[in-house]
Amino acid sequence: MNPQLEGIEALEGTYPFDLERSAKALRVNRFLRGLIVPDNRQLFRENPEAAFDKAGLTGEERQLVHARDWGALVRYGATFFALEKLARVSGVSNPEMVAQMRSETLEQFLKTRNVPGAR
Amino acid sequence: MARIIGGIGTSHVPTIGMAFDRKKRGDPDWTPLFEGYDAVASWLAERKPDVLVFFYNDHATSFFFDLYPTFAIGVSEEFAIADEGLGPRPIPRLKGHPRLARHLAESLVNAEFDLAVFQDLPLDHGCTSPLTMLWPHSPDWPGALVPIEINVVQYPLPTARRCYKLGQAVRRAVESYPEDLKVVVVGTGGLSHQMQGERAGFNNTEWDMRFLDLIEREPETLAAMRHVDFARLGGSEGVEVIMWLPMRGALSDGARKIHQSYYLPMTTAMAVALFEEPGAPSRAAAGAVKRAERAPA
Description:
heterodimer, A: Protocatechuate 4,5-dioxygenase, Chain A, 61% helix, B: alpha/beta, two-stranded antiparallel ribbon, 10 strands, 32% helix, globular
């Protein structure tokens, strides 16, 4: 156990991106990060299955990416910063990602914010 | 001899760059953010540093988990603006300072900070998001940038104390550089936010205010904290405030905070703070910490 993280399990709904998660989700994080390359974005838009094949994603990983299930992807091991690239390519904003992870609609989430128009 | 004339702590959330690119200054929802940076931009325009040493983190953009360095320094002549999914932002490539960067790499490795060295990699919003608020870039940037990347993404992260010590080593390295250069150190990230899991959307303004106070007066207290403490108080992604510690470590004990601003509109608390070294030419705003704060609902 990393002594710097001792007690982190007390923070509910928090999934520290550590080496175990990184190893488990290496393929999916590589796929997500690869979306910074225009050719990969184009392939993903035109033929997602071909993009998944190229990245060697498993059936479960394809399903999670396809569903844009941000919360499940985080629990699986995707890092938020790789997911952010999929969100940008998909036209999804960060407040929308956060709302979904909290199991809220965007409108419900915005009501909890100081300046709902700032997005 | 090169010398450090001041320091800046700033958030680097991508929305800061987005608000700039979309020219949101006149939008009341964004005006407080722009105004918070004005005093820092004026100070930079007045003091004209030659180089910004920028402590930042890459967001799995130019570095990936096949090799994710704990610390890395960029020594290129210039750095491209990263494409993070929407194409690069429409701003000029950043100018590096290879001579100073090489000197820092040599000095730091010889001081037992074994940094990785990178060249020719794009810089992502960790650098560029706050930079457009700080420096004008038309037709080109007014100075150079030496990026020092810190892993705050994949645990194990360097400890807060290690980050503070890195800053102290950077100070010694800058002061041993023979050429006369004015250097400003910049620490980025935070403040409170959590972008993952059911706890996403967490903020803590009370902690953020305490952090802004401690970073000036008691950086040792922050250096002694564990990552789990930062995550509990400031959210899982709020841990990245450990990148303010090398900035503070590179300043003298007597450096004073002469400006701070705090704005929490949505998911990430956006803060900027300006520190000046003692003995620096005084200016009108010195001594008065101005605050543009917006308390949470």
